Amino acid sequence: MPSLFDLTGKLALVTGATHGLGLAMAEGLGMAGARLVITGHSSQQKLDDAVAHLRNKGFDASGYLFNVTDEAAVADGVGQIESECAPIDILVNNAGIIRRVPLLEMELKDWQQVIDTNLTGVFTMSRPVVRKMIERGGGKVINICSMMSELGRDSVSAYAAAKGGLKMLTRNMATEWARHNIQVNGIGPGYFATSQTAPIRVDGHPFNEFILSRTPAGRWGNPEDLQGTAIFLASDASNFVTGQIVYVDGGILATIGKPSNE
Ligand SMILES: NC(=O)c1ccc[n+]([C@@H]2O[C@H](COP(=O)([O-])OP(=O)(O)OC[C@H]3O[C@@H](n4cnc5c(N)ncnc54)[C@H](OP(=O)(O)O)[C@@H]3O)[C@@H](O)[C@H]2O)c1
User: What gap in Å lies between CA 245 and CA 144, rounded to an integer?
Assistant: First the structure.
Protein backbone atom coordinates (compact mmCIF):
# COMPACT_ATOMS: atom_id res chain seq x y z
CA MET A 1 0.00 0.00 0.00
CA PRO A 2 1.47 3.46 -0.85
CA SER A 3 2.13 5.61 2.21
CA LEU A 4 -0.33 8.44 2.80
CA PHE A 5 2.66 10.50 3.89
CA ASP A 6 4.82 9.87 0.81
CA LEU A 7 5.87 13.10 -0.95
CA THR A 8 7.83 11.47 -3.78
CA GLY A 9 7.42 13.45 -7.01
CA LYS A 10 6.26 16.61 -5.19
CA LEU A 11 8.11 19.90 -5.13
CA ALA A 12 8.07 21.71 -1.78
CA LEU A 13 8.98 25.39 -1.56
CA VAL A 14 9.93 26.54 1.95
CA THR A 15 10.51 30.28 2.38
CA GLY A 16 13.09 31.56 4.87
CA ALA A 17 14.79 28.20 5.15
CA THR A 18 18.42 29.33 5.39
CA HIS A 19 18.45 28.02 8.97
CA GLY A 20 16.19 27.41 11.96
CA LEU A 21 12.70 26.03 11.68
CA GLY A 22 12.41 26.44 7.90
CA LEU A 23 15.53 24.40 7.23
CA ALA A 24 14.38 21.66 9.64
CA MET A 25 10.94 21.50 7.99
CA ALA A 26 12.57 21.35 4.54
CA GLU A 27 14.64 18.39 5.76
CA GLY A 28 11.49 16.69 7.03
CA LEU A 29 9.72 17.14 3.70
CA GLY A 30 12.86 15.84 1.96
CA MET A 31 12.85 12.74 4.20
CA ALA A 32 9.28 12.09 3.01
CA GLY A 33 10.55 12.19 -0.60
CA ALA A 34 9.89 15.77 -1.73
CA ARG A 35 12.16 17.71 -4.03
CA LEU A 36 13.13 20.91 -2.18
CA VAL A 37 13.38 24.58 -3.04
CA ILE A 38 14.34 26.89 -0.21
CA THR A 39 14.55 30.67 -0.17
CA GLY A 40 16.60 33.20 1.71
CA HIS A 41 16.72 36.93 1.80
CA SER A 42 19.82 38.57 3.22
CA SER A 43 22.80 36.52 2.06
CA GLN A 44 23.62 34.38 -1.00
CA GLN A 45 26.33 32.66 1.06
CA LYS A 46 23.89 31.62 3.81
CA LEU A 47 21.48 30.32 1.18
CA ASP A 48 24.24 28.39 -0.62
CA ASP A 49 25.37 26.86 2.69
CA ALA A 50 21.81 25.73 3.46
CA VAL A 51 21.39 24.19 -0.01
CA ALA A 52 24.77 22.43 0.37
CA HIS A 53 23.67 21.13 3.79
CA LEU A 54 20.50 19.65 2.24
CA ARG A 55 22.37 18.15 -0.72
CA ASN A 56 24.95 16.60 1.65
CA LYS A 57 22.04 14.83 3.31
CA GLY A 58 21.07 13.39 -0.07
CA PHE A 59 18.14 15.66 -0.89
CA ASP A 60 17.39 17.21 -4.29
CA ALA A 61 17.57 20.89 -3.28
CA SER A 62 17.83 24.32 -4.91
CA GLY A 63 17.86 27.85 -3.49
CA TYR A 64 16.50 31.24 -4.56
CA LEU A 65 17.14 34.62 -2.98
CA PHE A 66 14.29 37.14 -2.81
CA ASN A 67 12.39 39.28 -0.36
CA VAL A 68 8.89 37.93 0.37
CA THR A 69 7.61 41.48 0.88
CA ASP A 70 8.56 42.57 -2.65
CA GLU A 71 5.65 41.55 -4.88
CA ALA A 72 7.57 41.90 -8.17
CA ALA A 73 10.57 39.95 -6.85
CA VAL A 74 8.26 37.21 -5.56
CA ALA A 75 6.50 36.92 -8.94
CA ASP A 76 9.90 36.65 -10.70
CA GLY A 77 11.14 34.11 -8.14
CA VAL A 78 8.06 31.91 -8.39
CA GLY A 79 8.21 32.05 -12.20
CA GLN A 80 11.89 31.07 -12.17
CA ILE A 81 11.31 28.18 -9.74
CA GLU A 82 8.44 26.81 -11.81
CA SER A 83 10.41 26.99 -15.08
CA GLU A 84 13.83 25.87 -13.74
CA CYS A 85 12.75 23.24 -11.20
CA ALA A 86 9.15 21.98 -11.36
CA PRO A 87 5.61 23.05 -10.55
CA ILE A 88 5.22 23.91 -6.86
CA ASP A 89 2.98 21.36 -5.08
CA ILE A 90 3.63 22.44 -1.49
CA LEU A 91 4.24 25.99 -0.23
CA VAL A 92 5.49 26.53 3.33
CA ASN A 93 5.27 30.23 4.24
CA ASN A 94 7.90 30.23 6.95
CA ALA A 95 9.89 33.48 6.47
CA GLY A 96 9.40 35.66 9.53
CA ILE A 97 11.03 38.16 11.85
CA ILE A 98 10.45 39.34 15.40
CA ARG A 99 11.25 42.71 17.01
CA ARG A 100 11.06 42.79 20.80
CA VAL A 101 10.17 46.42 21.54
CA PRO A 102 7.44 47.76 23.87
CA LEU A 103 4.60 49.17 21.79
CA LEU A 104 4.99 52.75 23.04
CA GLU A 105 8.65 52.75 22.06
CA MET A 106 8.27 51.04 18.69
CA GLU A 107 8.90 53.07 15.55
CA LEU A 108 6.39 52.87 12.73
CA LYS A 109 8.99 51.49 10.30
CA ASP A 110 9.72 48.56 12.65
CA TRP A 111 6.01 47.87 13.11
CA GLN A 112 5.58 47.87 9.35
CA GLN A 113 8.56 45.60 8.74
CA VAL A 114 7.19 42.99 11.13
CA ILE A 115 3.68 43.11 9.64
CA ASP A 116 5.05 43.14 6.07
CA THR A 117 7.31 40.13 6.57
CA ASN A 118 5.09 37.89 8.71
CA LEU A 119 1.66 38.71 7.27
CA THR A 120 1.81 40.60 3.97
CA GLY A 121 4.65 38.33 2.83
CA VAL A 122 2.25 35.38 3.00
CA PHE A 123 -0.23 37.29 0.84
CA THR A 124 2.43 38.15 -1.77
CA MET A 125 3.96 34.64 -1.80
CA SER A 126 0.77 32.62 -1.84
CA ARG A 127 -1.11 34.28 -4.68
CA PRO A 128 1.24 33.55 -7.62
CA VAL A 129 1.86 30.02 -6.30
CA VAL A 130 -1.81 29.25 -5.71
CA ARG A 131 -2.91 30.59 -9.12
CA LYS A 132 -0.70 27.87 -10.67
CA MET A 133 -1.91 25.24 -8.19
CA ILE A 134 -5.50 26.00 -9.20
CA GLU A 135 -4.63 25.52 -12.90
CA ARG A 136 -3.10 22.15 -12.01
CA GLY A 137 -5.96 20.98 -9.79
CA GLY A 138 -4.67 21.28 -6.23
CA GLY A 139 -1.89 21.86 -3.72
CA LYS A 140 -0.92 22.41 -0.11
CA VAL A 141 -0.15 25.66 1.72
CA ILE A 142 1.28 25.67 5.23
CA ASN A 143 1.56 29.00 7.06
CA ILE A 144 3.93 29.19 10.02
CA CYS A 145 2.00 30.93 12.77
CA SER A 146 3.01 31.06 16.44
CA MET A 147 1.66 30.70 19.95
CA MET A 148 1.51 34.49 19.61
CA SER A 149 -1.38 33.84 17.20
CA GLU A 150 -3.29 33.16 20.45
CA LEU A 151 -1.45 34.83 23.32
CA GLY A 152 -0.13 38.25 24.17
CA ARG A 153 3.20 39.06 25.79
CA ASP A 154 5.14 42.19 26.65
CA SER A 155 7.20 43.66 23.82
CA VAL A 156 5.94 41.55 20.91
CA SER A 157 2.77 43.40 19.91
CA ALA A 158 3.64 43.78 16.24
CA TYR A 159 4.64 40.13 15.98
CA ALA A 160 1.48 38.96 17.78
CA ALA A 161 -0.68 41.20 15.58
CA ALA A 162 0.97 39.72 12.48
CA LYS A 163 0.75 36.10 13.64
CA GLY A 164 -2.82 36.54 14.89
CA GLY A 165 -3.64 38.01 11.49
CA LEU A 166 -1.91 35.07 9.84
CA LYS A 167 -4.17 32.65 11.71
CA MET A 168 -7.21 34.40 10.22
CA LEU A 169 -5.59 34.70 6.80
CA THR A 170 -5.04 30.91 6.93
CA ARG A 171 -8.72 30.30 7.65
CA ASN A 172 -9.80 32.66 4.88
CA MET A 173 -7.38 31.18 2.33
CA ALA A 174 -8.72 27.75 3.28
CA THR A 175 -12.28 28.97 2.75
CA GLU A 176 -11.60 30.54 -0.65
CA TRP A 177 -9.44 27.77 -2.07
CA ALA A 178 -10.95 24.53 -0.68
CA ARG A 179 -13.13 24.14 -3.77
CA HIS A 180 -9.94 24.05 -5.85
CA ASN A 181 -8.57 21.11 -3.83
CA ILE A 182 -6.07 23.33 -2.05
CA GLN A 183 -5.67 22.71 1.68
CA VAL A 184 -4.36 25.63 3.72
CA ASN A 185 -3.30 25.02 7.32
CA GLY A 186 -1.02 26.59 9.89
CA ILE A 187 1.62 25.31 12.25
CA GLY A 188 1.97 27.25 15.50
CA PRO A 189 5.37 26.51 17.05
CA GLY A 190 5.80 27.07 20.76
CA TYR A 191 9.23 28.13 21.98
CA PHE A 192 11.96 26.62 19.84
CA ALA A 193 15.70 26.59 20.09
CA THR A 194 16.69 28.77 17.08
CA SER A 195 18.60 31.97 16.44
CA GLN A 196 15.34 33.92 16.91
CA THR A 197 15.19 32.78 20.54
CA ALA A 198 18.95 32.61 21.20
CA PRO A 199 19.09 35.90 23.16
CA ILE A 200 16.57 34.64 25.73
CA ARG A 201 17.60 30.97 25.79
CA VAL A 202 20.52 31.18 28.21
CA ASP A 203 20.95 29.66 31.68
CA GLY A 204 19.80 32.05 34.36
CA HIS A 205 17.81 34.25 31.97
CA PRO A 206 14.42 34.70 33.65
CA PHE A 207 12.58 34.03 30.40
CA ASN A 208 14.47 30.77 29.90
CA GLU A 209 13.49 29.67 33.41
CA PHE A 210 9.91 30.78 32.76
CA ILE A 211 9.64 28.74 29.53
CA LEU A 212 11.09 25.62 31.11
CA SER A 213 8.64 25.83 34.01
CA ARG A 214 5.67 26.95 31.87
CA THR A 215 5.99 24.16 29.26
CA PRO A 216 4.38 20.90 30.40
CA ALA A 217 6.98 18.99 28.35
CA GLY A 218 9.68 20.79 30.40
CA ARG A 219 11.92 21.78 27.48
CA TRP A 220 12.34 24.04 24.47
CA GLY A 221 11.24 22.53 21.17
CA ASN A 222 13.88 21.21 18.80
CA PRO A 223 13.35 22.29 15.16
CA GLU A 224 13.00 18.59 14.23
CA ASP A 225 9.87 18.44 16.41
CA LEU A 226 8.02 20.25 13.58
CA GLN A 227 8.83 17.74 10.87
CA GLY A 228 6.00 15.26 11.48
CA THR A 229 3.32 17.97 11.43
CA ALA A 230 4.82 19.53 8.28
CA ILE A 231 4.83 16.15 6.51
CA PHE A 232 1.23 15.45 7.58
CA LEU A 233 -0.03 18.82 6.35
CA ALA A 234 1.94 18.51 3.07
CA SER A 235 0.72 14.99 2.28
CA ASP A 236 -2.40 13.15 1.16
CA ALA A 237 -2.93 12.20 4.83
CA SER A 238 -4.44 15.69 5.34
CA ASN A 239 -6.55 15.94 2.17
CA PHE A 240 -9.75 16.80 4.11
CA VAL A 241 -8.03 18.96 6.73
CA THR A 242 -8.09 22.67 5.95
CA GLY A 243 -8.20 25.94 7.88
CA GLN A 244 -6.63 24.41 11.01
CA ILE A 245 -3.73 25.64 13.10
CA VAL A 246 -1.75 22.81 14.70
CA TYR A 247 0.14 24.07 17.75
CA VAL A 248 3.40 22.24 18.33
CA ASP A 249 4.21 23.69 21.73
CA GLY A 250 4.92 20.96 24.28
CA GLY A 251 1.50 21.64 25.80
CA ILE A 252 1.83 25.36 26.69
CA LEU A 253 -1.51 26.39 25.19
CA ALA A 254 -3.26 23.50 26.95
CA THR A 255 -2.58 24.74 30.45
CA ILE A 256 -2.75 27.83 32.64
CA GLY A 257 0.45 26.73 34.42
CA LYS A 258 1.04 26.59 38.17
CA PRO A 259 2.76 28.64 40.87
CA SER A 260 6.47 27.88 41.25
CA ASN A 261 6.00 26.66 44.88
CA GLU A 262 3.52 23.86 43.95
N1 LIG B 1 11.93 30.20 16.79
C2 LIG B 1 10.79 30.07 17.44
O3 LIG B 1 10.76 29.70 18.62
C4 LIG B 1 9.49 30.38 16.73
C5 LIG B 1 8.31 30.23 17.45
C6 LIG B 1 7.09 30.48 16.81
C7 LIG B 1 7.07 30.82 15.47
N8 LIG B 1 8.24 30.97 14.80
C9 LIG B 1 8.15 31.32 13.38
O10 LIG B 1 8.80 30.31 12.60
C11 LIG B 1 9.37 30.91 11.44
C12 LIG B 1 10.87 30.61 11.40
O13 LIG B 1 11.47 31.06 12.60
P14 LIG B 1 13.02 30.87 12.90
O15 LIG B 1 13.19 31.01 14.36
O16 LIG B 1 13.55 29.67 12.22
O17 LIG B 1 13.58 32.20 12.23
P18 LIG B 1 15.05 32.57 11.76
O19 LIG B 1 16.02 31.53 12.21
O20 LIG B 1 15.27 33.98 12.18
O21 LIG B 1 14.92 32.50 10.17
C22 LIG B 1 14.06 33.38 9.49
C23 LIG B 1 14.15 33.09 8.02
O24 LIG B 1 13.29 34.03 7.33
C25 LIG B 1 14.04 34.65 6.31
N26 LIG B 1 13.53 36.01 6.10
C27 LIG B 1 13.42 37.02 7.00
N28 LIG B 1 12.90 38.12 6.41
C29 LIG B 1 12.66 37.77 5.11
C30 LIG B 1 12.13 38.46 4.00
N31 LIG B 1 11.72 39.74 4.08
N32 LIG B 1 12.04 37.79 2.81
C33 LIG B 1 12.45 36.52 2.71
N34 LIG B 1 12.95 35.80 3.73
C35 LIG B 1 13.06 36.44 4.92
C36 LIG B 1 15.47 34.64 6.79
O37 LIG B 1 16.34 34.73 5.67
P38 LIG B 1 17.86 35.29 5.85
O39 LIG B 1 18.55 34.35 6.77
O40 LIG B 1 18.40 35.28 4.47
O41 LIG B 1 17.70 36.67 6.43
C42 LIG B 1 15.54 33.27 7.46
O43 LIG B 1 15.78 32.27 6.48
C44 LIG B 1 9.07 32.40 11.53
O45 LIG B 1 7.90 32.68 10.81
C46 LIG B 1 8.84 32.61 13.01
O47 LIG B 1 8.05 33.72 13.28
C48 LIG B 1 9.45 30.75 15.40
Answer: 9
